[in-house]
Amino acid sequence: MTNDFIAPDGHPRCQWCGGAPEFLPYHDNEWGFPVDNDQQLFEKLCLESFQSGLSWRTILNKRENFRAAFHHFDFHQVARFGEDNVQRLLQDAGIIRHRGKIEAAINNAQRAKEMVEQEGSLAAFFWRYEPIALAVPQTQTTSPESIALAKELKKRGWKFFGPTTAFAFMQAMGLLNDHAEECVIREPATRARELFLRPSDRQKPTA
Description:
Elements lengths: L4 E2 L5 E2 L9 H7 L8 H14 L4 H6 L1 H7 L5 H4 L4 H8 L8 H21 L2 H5 L17 H12 L7 H10 L13 H10 L12
Antiparallel strand pairs: 1-2
Protein name: DNA-3-methyladenine glycosylase I
EC number: 3.2.2.20
Pfam families: Adenine_glyco (PF03352)
């Protein structure tokens, strides 16, 4: 893949991060770096769902508003939201006021609590879907793993999370390194993934 975007520092980046100024810090510091914090994983799950049919720039610009509106995506708190919270969120101009997506976020918080009870953590579940073989960077929008992940989440009652959304989530959370070959951030992301201790590799606490 030929990369045409040269950042202000003179180094090449993934083409997409040249689309808006706010993309560059997100690309350089977050996208593709492995995450195992459950609250961060849930935040990204929600934001990817809210993005459906919209641009990531819209969501990124509203991210702090989303965090304030959803208690920084503490899914234990969001799971307790009722109709009064839905009405509050529908009046919040700082977020995406889409009833279906708001209700899906609340539903998914409830499902996240169940997943932690069943799997130990969200990270333990999601990192099982880390791809074994990587294709050429940024040449696909789904993968066998993202299709399997979306299917399993649907089975567990999650909403607004199809294979394309699942793949975008996996790219962002570092389950794969999809930075372009020429991108200066590809190597730091690779190193971060090499050093990352996956949930399946951690020792279980002794009794």
